[in-house]
Design goal:
The complex is a heterodimer. By secondary structure, chain A is of the alpha/beta class. Chain A contains 13 helices and eight strands. A seven-stranded parallel beta sheet of chain A has the order 4-2-5-1-6-7-8, sandwiched between helices. The longest helix of chain A is centred in the last third of the chain and has 29 residues. Chain A starts with a helix and ends with a helix. Chain B contains five helices and five strands; from the N terminus they run βαβαβαβαβα. A five-stranded parallel beta sheet of chain B has the order 2-1-3-4-5, sandwiched between helices. Classes of the chains: A alpha/beta, B alpha/beta.
């Protein structure tokens, strides 16, 4: 595909076009992804999530800027996801407003995405877009989720390092021990640290972590923390220190003026080298790819189902459900059986 | 899959600080099912063409109230075309004197929408233009 060659040679227009094809899940886009896949696996994918208005975009702006200062040769991509209206299908993508300072840097590429109905904080195609950036040679891919509440945790299936942004005043210590978004953090950031209550929020989060927080990073299997074992120290070699588990640091920032940004970038680098030293980078990669394949299997089964089961059959069963003659689960079983055999078990009885 | 979403960049080049009109149009296009990338105030032509490139938009809407349209709009069009985005539709909203309209249209502007335009007309004409451009492709 000529577009792919141009993109691999560095054409930003080609890159942008490939992103669109992939986002729209067109057959060309799918072919492009297949062709690009061998070139992926190098980029450090960093997720940034947190409630609406917590300063994610501003933080991403400053983080990208700092990464570029630290590594002038590094290319940084940003994928910023904003919600699609459930009523009209339209969206206002406004994250760029906070990223104007990056606009003149040719090594930074910002792409806004609408969530298009997906509910986990990302769009369905966010993973695929990150693969395109990866194959295009971007070293860092910052992925900003939609403003997330408590359970939009899809980012953990995609990012090597997940940053959860919190702000002062969002709740007490009970909020901080609930399951969900805080649990997935590799790095916790209390942004707007100049606002009252920042120290208290920081304390709550730190005590939550001390209480036995299981980090997201090694939880690719259910008990990966236990499964993972230090390699036996070889003889005549000084005994290496056991690599400690990653304890998510709690960092205070004021993203608008840059306070604390350098320190967060340092933690990102620390997290990366921890992942690499402990073998968790490969595990994470395997986990991410497993999730991708699982999702694709689900999606293709669904579209096969939709193609094979006639609309009127679905409608007939749905009206039975409406009249309380068939339960939703019985209806689903029948539809799936219909799909598998092409025979309506209801009629053949 | 679903039909291709129309992607629109709404930007305010130049120095005037009033973006209510831009926001009203952004909102109207959103309500018509488009994906609107809003970039805010005080954009240079370079920033706008760069954003249009990265976002691979179908349409650019420029809101100008400052009177600098004759200088800014042709520059933006030139930069967008230089980037290879030949098919992108560019429309202008704001205060444009009668005498300047033809010049801007000649420079490649699709339509100029002054104060009081029905936003439904804006979104309908844009949708038709994008569909026509995609058919030609």
């Amino acid at each position: 595909m000529a577009l792919i060659d141009d993109m691999r040679k560095g054409s930003r227009l080609a890159l942008s076009r490939v992103l669109t094809l992939v986002e729209n899940a067109s057959p060309t886009g799918q072919a492009a992804l297949n062709q690009l896949f061998p070139y992926t696996g190098k980029a450090h994918k960093i997720g940034i999530t947190g409630p609406p208005g917590s300063g994610k975009s501003t933080l991403v702006n400053k983080l990208a800027h700092q990464l570029r200062l630290n590594e002038p040769a590094a290319k940084v991509a940003i994928i910023a996801v904003d919600p699609t209206s459930p009523f009209t299908g339209g969206a206002i993508l406004g994250d760029r407003v906070r990223m104007l300072a990056l606009q003149n840097d040719p090594m930074v590429f910002i792409r806004s995405m609408a969530s298009r109905g997906a509910l986990g904080g990302l769009a369905t195609a966010t993973q695929a877009l990150s693969q395109v950036f990866d194959a295009a040679g971007y070293d860092y891919i910052l992925i900003e989720t939609v403003g997330a509440g408590q359970s939009e945790v899809d980012i953990v299936n995609l990012a090597h390092t997940t940053i959860v942004v919190d702000v002062p005043g969002l709740g007490d210590d009970i909020q901080s021990i609930k399951a969900g978004i805080l649990e997935i953090a590799d790095i916790l950031v209390v942004n707007k640290a100049d606002h009252p209550g920042a120290d208290q929020s920081t304390r709550y989060l730190r005590s939550m972590i001390r209480m036995g927080h299981r980090t997201s990073s090694p939880s690719y299997g259910k008990h990966a923390l236990k499964e993972w074992q230090e390699p036996e120290p070889k003889e005549n070699e000084p005994e290496k220190e056991l690599e400690p588990d990653w304890l998510p640091p709690v960092m205070k920032t004021i993203a608008t003026d840059g306070t604390g940004i350098m320190e967060v970038v340092e933690k990102i680098q620390n997290h990366r080298s921890w992942l690499e030293k402990t073998g968790n980078w490969e595990k994470k990669d395997a986990f991410i790819l497993r999730e991708v394949v699982k999702k694709m299997v689900t999606a293709s089964l669904v579209s096969k189902f939709e193609a094979e089961v006639p609309e009127d059959e679905i409608e007939r069963l749905l009206s039975d459900v409406n009249r309380r003659k068939v339960s939703p689960s019985e209806a689903a079983t029948q539809l799936v059986a219909y799909n598998r055999t092409g025979i309506n078990p209801h009629l053949s009885e | 899959m679903t039909e291709k979403k129309i992607r629109v960049l709404i930007a305010k080049p130049g120095l005037d600080g009033h973006d209510r009109g831009a926001k009203v149009v952004a909102r109207a296009l959103r309500d018509d099912g488009m994906e609107v990338i809003y970039t805010g105030l005080r954009q240079t032509p370079e920033m706008i063409s760069e954003a249009a490139l990265q976002e691979d938009v179908d349409v650019i809407g420029l809101s100008i109230l400052s009177g600098a349209h004759n200088a800014l709009v042709p520059q933006i069009i030139r930069k967008v075309r230089e980037n290879g985005q030949n098919e992108v539709i560019i429309f202008v909203g704001g205060i444009i004197p009668e005498d300047d309209i033809q010049g801007l249209l000649d420079a490649g502007v699709f339509k100029i929408y002054g104060p009081g335009t029905d936003t439904r007309q804006v979104s309908r004409e844009i949708r038709e233009a994008v569909q026509a451009a995609t058919l030609v492709d």
